Structures are given as C-alpha cells and as structure tokens.
Amino acid sequence: MADKKVGPNVGFDEKNSNLCSTCRKVDFKSLFWSHDCEVDASLQRNRWVNCDTHRPKCRLLGKLNSQASGCSFCAFLYQCQVRLNLSPTKQEHWRCSIRPECSLEDFLPKLRKPSDPFLQDVAILQIWKVQLTGSGRFIQSQLMPQPILRVVDSSSKTLIRNKRAGGGLQGRKLDPNKVNLNLIEQWLTLCRSTHSHCEDVDAGRIPGLLVIDCTTNHVVPLPLRQEAADQVANYVTLSYLWGTAEATGGSVVQSINCDGVSVLALPTQIPLVISDAIRVVKQLGYRYLWVDRYCIPQEDGAAKHIQILNMGRIYSNSILTIIAAAGDEPEYGLPGCKSTTRFLVLYESPTDHITNSKWNTRGWTYQEGLLSKRRLVFTDLMVYFQCQEMHGDEVLSLPIPEPGEGFDAIRPLLLKKSEFGMVFPKVTDWDDPFTAWDRISEYGPRELGHDSDALNAISGVMEMYALAAGDSAFKLFCGLPVLSIRSWAKYDRLYSEPQALNFRTSFEDADAFKEAFKAQRTDDNNLTFSLAFSLCWSHGWRESFDLPASFERARRKVFCSWTTAGWRTRKVKPRRINLFDSCLRIRVQYSGELLLNWEDDNPRILDLSRNGKIPLSLNITGLVMDVQMVWQEHPLDPDEDGWVITRPFETSLGSPQWLFEEAVSGKGDCSKLLFLIVGCDYELNLYEPLTLSGMILRPVTRSSEGEVRTFYERLNSCLIEVSKDDWPRLASLTREMEVRLI
User: Fold this and answer.
1) DSSP letters along 538-553, please?
2) Nearest-angstrom CA–CA distance, 48 and 39
3) How many angstroms separate the CA atoms of 609 and 365, rounded?
4) Sheet strands (E) in 214-303
5) Measured between alpha carbons, how far is residue 701 from residues 140, 352, 371, 581 in Å?
6) Where is the Heterokaryon incompatibility domain (predicted)?
7) Cα 608 to Cα 595: distance, rounded to the nearest angstrom
8) Which residues contact 245 (CB under 8 A, 6 or more apart)?
9) What does the alpha-carbon distance between residue 634 and residue 632 come to, in Å, rounded to a whole number?
C-alpha cells in the first residue's frame, strides 16, 4: 500500500495525481508515523500494550462500495473487498468501512527492561463489515481478521529492522513470481548459528539412504562430507502430495550409462513440484534432495520396508524440509518458483492456508511435517518458515534480535494472538511415551490412499518414541503403544500405583472395598497389564467435530479392531485403570498353527509386528458379562442423544448411532454384546462406586482355516459404575471366557 520510504515521508503524497479527491483527504503521513504506546504493567505477570494512549486518528472512507476511476487507493481497497468476498448483494443491507488501529493492541510484549513504559508501534488498517437495517440504521459490525499492513523497506540485507522504520506489525513487499530467497537464507543462517537444538542429528547412518544429486539428477547413496569423513552430507527433504502414478509418470528411476558406469537417474518426465524443489535446493546452496518417490526402492519390498521404518530419522536429520502446501496434486508446483504465481492483496496469516490445505489432510504428510527440524512451507500466498525455536513468513515483518542482543522497544516477539502462533507443534517430549496418544489423536482422522498404509504412515513418529524412551518403556504392537507400568508412575499418570486382584474371588465377597484392600502391587514389568491398559483406549467421539458418517467410513478393516490403526478417529485416549484383574491371560494367534503367549513370547511377537505381520486374532481370557443397550434421544438437545447400557447396570456411552446399528434388533435393543472386564478405577472411599473398565465387543463370524468361527470385534472401551451394594451381583452376572478379538 505504501512506498518504500520510512519515517515522515511514508505513505502517499497529498498531491499524488493517482488519488481521488476523497483519498487525498487521508493523512497517510500521520497515520503511519511510528509512535510510542504505553505498556500497561498493572498486572504483575503480564504487560499489555495499552493503545488507548495513542490511538490513530484520521479521516478514512466510511463507505466503500464503489471504485473511483484512476484512484490507486480505491482500486486497492476494491481488491481487498473482492478477496474477502465483501461484494454487496441485494439480499443484504450493509456497507464496508476502513478503520485505523494500533497493530500491537492486545499483544503481550517482551521488553528489555520490566520498567520500560513505552513500546514503538505503528497503525494498521482494519476492514469492518457493518450491517444495516433497510432504512440504513446501524445493527452490528464485524471485524475482518486480515489487516492491511504498512510496507517497510524490503531491500534490507538483515532480519534486524531499521529503527527508523518503527515498531509494530509491518509488511514486506511480495514478488508474485519469485520467492524471497534472501529472506529464506537469513532465516536458515540465524537458525544454524544460534539454535543448537535444530542442529541435533542422529550420529548413525541410515542404511541404504539414497538422495537426488540436484546437479546431475542422478539418484546416489548419500555421501560423506568432504570436511568431516565421519559425517554424512547435508540433504533437503520434500513433503508433497504424491498424486497418481498415471498422472505423474510413475515412480521408477531409470538406469543409464554414464562414462561406462551404470547409474540411477530420474525419469525424463518428473512432477512439477519435484523439479521446482530441485531448483530451490540449488538456489539455497545445497546439493542433495530426498524425495520418497525416487529415493525409496519401490520395487524392492524389503528395502522399502527398511526405509519406511526410518522415515522419522530421514526427516529429522535433514537440514531442511520443503513442504508443498499449495494445490491438490504434484503438477501444481511450488508457488513463487516461476511455475505458479502468488496473489496477495492484504495480509492473511499462512496458518489457515496450511492447516486447511489438502496437504494437511493426508496421512503420510503428518509425520513429515512433525518430525522435520526446519520447515519451508510454500502456500499460494507466501512462504512460511518454522524451526524448533522461531517462525516467520515472507510478508509479516517481525524483527529478530541478533545473537547476544537483548530485545529493544521495536521487537515485541512474545506474540500471543493465535493467528501469529506456530503452525507445527513443538515436540520436545519424545521421552514421555504417554504423549504418543496425542500424536495418534492428531494423525487419526487423516486420509490415506490405501488403508493398508495406516501403520507405515506414522511409523516414523512411533520409532522416535521407541528411540527416546527405550524398548523397556515403549513397545509398539500393530500400531498400539504399549507402555511399561514404570513409565506410568514416572510421569504421574495415575492417582495411585497399579495393583492386581482376582476379580472372580472378589465378586463373591459382599464387601467390595474389603476385597480391594487385598490387592497386590503389580510388577513394573507386567506385560499383560501394560497391553490391557492400552487396549482400553477410547475414541472420544463426543469431543470430535468431524465424526465419520458411517461405520464403514470409520473402520479400517484391514487392521484389527483393537488397535487404533483399525479406525479413523481423533481424540484417542486411554482409560485410567489402577486395579487389574490378575486372571487376565493374552495370547496372539497368527495364521496357521502359530499361537504365541504375550508374556513368554513377547520379543518374537514384537519382532513380527515390526516386520508388518498382522495377527489373525488377539485371544484374551478374562471375565465377561452380557450387556444390552438402547439408543435414547434427548427431548431438547440432539447433541445429547446417545447409546445407554440398560442391563445389567445403566451407563451412558458417548458413541455415534452408527457404531452399534448393525447389532440393533427390530425393537431397538442391542443383543449379544459382551463387556470384557479388564480392571477398574477405584478409590478407597465408602461413598463412591467402583468403576469397571473394559471393552464392548460384538460377535462376528469369519471363515478361518476352513472353519466358520465366532470372533469378536472391539467397538469401544467403556466405564461401568457399580455401587457397593451391587458388587456381589457381579458373581452371577460374569463368566470366564476366551474371546478372540479381530
């Protein structure tokens, strides 16, 4: 909007012939003059920018529904309205207005001295949609979230803003056809020189790692550094939408003769996003690029499996990950790399464009974005950069202090408004295995081209936990985290230490709490209770705003129902259990006659799981009871509709209607459902009921080994409260049984 001048000469000149008579009345010099804003230090912990002490005042257009011919500012505002879909309609009565505001209003500044009373700020322009009655009377106004920023000098060779430009949120000029490589290089230089955490890499070599040599387009083993023979060379990774092989020329590299030597080379036709990425890699001064399409041997199943297991290390060890978050297919390219142009009228935070992109909906891209230490994201509007310590975009000017330099009055970097926050979560808790459930929740609803990829597409994330926490604390069984009891206590996940009790014996006693006192502390290495705890994970349906539309959409039937990989769901979380049934026994059935004991054969089972072997069933011996349920509709609030267990004890379930629909009879009651008791959540309080923890199972018939057998499908975990008086009834309601979960 403004030219490149700073200080008192900023903005349009009043005599500018490109402004209409109305726009010449706007005092741009006064509007964009940097000023001091008072910092409100009345709160002991937080200091807020108080913009009431200097709120910009100037005459601006009160009604913007027409475009003055030849006026550059009117044309600019008209484009803003078009971008925000603010074109007036006959059905609505409203007008659009522009108001100046302080750019740092409601921000938390981080100042050099707690006593600093003022902060340098500058004005921004905010667009408001004003709703009117038919007669033109005011009803309400709505603020558009995209601000109009003053542009500062974009030719600066440093991230440190010239103090003459003032403080606050300001913008850089954007070239529609060319990304700001100078700015990207500054981000990378600052990160490499000051962020030791971003420089941490795995010392070991990744077996069989191939990369594209961007100077020759050959696919070669990643070489060692010339200056350090014990370290591999730096390489860049690419995260993008794969697309279809037919549309992008396949994924097989070709063997060519080069000076009498056979070498692997890229095909003649490659997707535009990859050719653009190669160009960016060379422009940034790097040589090697890793792209899964060409660097994973697609025809060698064993080698491919090894590379997939190392995806976490591949992305976390790369010097930079280029993310193509624009477009819906790989032929879209990287905007700003000549193949695709950008169009930006007013500042729009890249956060929404990245989180709402198709790239962000795909299963494989989840771990690629999460595990990368440095990310360079290409959107249709701008480039966004985020490492482990900082973030920034190509348009918004937020000066960053030089190493060892304190924050001065024009550097308010502790930004609390959500639209200026980091896009990717900062994961630093790999050694806390319980946070693996958070990662599964984030990954769960993402789309996969093939359901069979559900485990592979998050395997890199799970391997990071295994490496950080150790095999004794974190095990992965068909996508299901199995955590040691010791890790529960370490991270204070339970109110009391886990214990075990023979439930069959305790049900026969009239005093449940007397029996609870007989419970014995469990062994820290009890593998059965660790798996039982994980099996009681919950979907968290009520907390999800994008429920699958049907059972078929929610269920991935290529995987067992007891693992999270078997479902498309978010908000996955384990139930709290601190008293286990000591009679639980678990065996793992594979095809043929291979039947392994979970305790005795655990290393072999986990090795089979790591190599992609899916068991036929999980055979659990424990106490079960029959349950009946009915769908109940709330008379006032449809959101409160839900399934209710009516027998033997009434319990509400937060599950969608389609989850149990196949088991519904003509009268609306579910029959033949089982509740498998795993343990309970209890406190030694005579006035509180005990809560049984377990899984709701439905019977299904399958042909196995030439026979028709009855198996059970896990639909959800469940908590059933049992009062002290009802506890003795469990002896007659339950029976011991081996259920085969598929």
Assistant:
1) E--GGG-SS--SSHHH
2) 6
3) 23
4) 218-221, 236-239, 254-258, 261-265, 288-290
5) 61, 46, 41, 28
6) 235-368
7) 13
8) 251
9) 7
E strands, 605-689, in order: 617-632, 642-647, 651-653, 669-681
Facing residues of 619 across strands? 587, 740
Does residue 624 carry a pLDDT above 90? yes
Tokens of 171: 């913008």
95 in Cβ contact with 127 (< 8 Å):
no
Q: Is the pLDDT of residue 698 over 70?
A: yes
* Secondary structure letter of residue 199 according to DSSP: H
**Which burial class, exposed, middle or buried, applies to 344 when counting CB atoms under 10 A from its CB (0-12, 13-18, 19+)?**
middle
Distance CA 407, CA 22 (A): 41
Of 260, 371, 378, 267, nearest to 311 by C-alpha is 371
Per residue in 539-592, pLDDT (tens digit) is 877 655 566 777 878 889 999 999 999 998 877 888 878 788 999 999 999 987
Q: Strands (DSSP E) along 61-93, which ranges?
A: none
| Strand 617-632 versus strand 735-741 pairing type | antiparallel
Neighbouring C-alpha atoms within 13 Å toward the C-beta of 600: 5
| Whole-number percent of the chain with pLDDT over 70 | 76
pLDDT computed for residue 148 by the predictor: 82
User: How far is residue 28's CA from residue 148's CA, in Å, rounded to a whole number?
Assistant: 13
Residue 389 pLDDT > 90: no
Whether the per-residue pLDDT at 741 is higher than 90: the answer is: yes
Q: What angle do CA 443, 386, 308 make, to 5 degrees?
A: 45
Supply the pLDDT for residue 249.
52
Which residue from 224, 226, 221 is spatially nearest to 211, judged by alpha carbons? 221
DSSP 3-state of 18 = coil
Residue 447: DSSP 8-state: B
User: What is the rounded CA–CA span in Å between residue 604 and residue 478?
Assistant: 13
Q: Looking at this protein, which amino acid is placed at residue 101?
A: E
Residues 216 and 55: their CA atoms lie apart, in Å, by 58
Q: Which of helix, strand or coil describes residue 166?
A: coil
CA distance 298 to 300: 6
Q: Is the sign of the CA dihedral 176, 182, 184, 186 positive or negative?
A: negative
In the beta sheet, which residues pair with residue 18?
Answer: none
Q: What is the 3-state secondary structure (H, E, C) of 695-717?
A: EEEEEEEEEECCEEEEEEEEEEE
Crossing angle of helices 436-443 and 459-469, rounded to 10°: 180
Enter the tokens of residue 722: 């049992």
To the nearest 5 percent, what fractions of the chain are helix, strand and coil? 25, 25, 45
For 35-52, what is each residue's pLDDT tens digit?
A: 776 666 554 344 444 444
- Distance (Å) of CA 301 to CA 208, 249, 296, 307, 667: 13, 21, 10, 10, 51
Host H or E run for residue 73 = helix 72-83
Scan for tokens 């999980």, then name that residue.
618
Q: How far apart are the first and last CA of the chain?
A: 62
Q: Please write the tens of the pLDDT for every residue from 67-80.
A: 556 778 777 877 78
Among 539-543, 592-596, 683-687, name the one with the lowest average pLDDT. Answer: 683-687
- The 10s digit of each residue's pLDDT in 173-190 is 888 899 999 999 989 998
The amino acid at 146: Q
Q: Are 198 and 388 in contact (CB under 8 A)?
A: yes
Q: How many CB atoms lie within 10 A of CB 363?
A: 21
**Within a 10 A sphere around the Cβ of 84, how many other Cβ atoms?**
17
SS3 490: helix
| Residue 157 identity (one-letter amino acid) | K
Look at the block and give the residue holding tokens 């990207």.
Answer: 184
| Between residues 125 and 158, the one the model is more confident about | 125
Q: Which residues lie closer than 8 Å to 19 by C-beta, 6 or more apart?
A: 12, 71, 72, 73
* 3-class secondary-structure state, position 504: helix
What percentage of the chain exceeds 90 in pLDDT? Answer: 30
Q: Is the Cα torsion angle 483, 303, 427, 417 positive or negative in sign?
A: negative
CB 722 within 8 A of CB 732: no
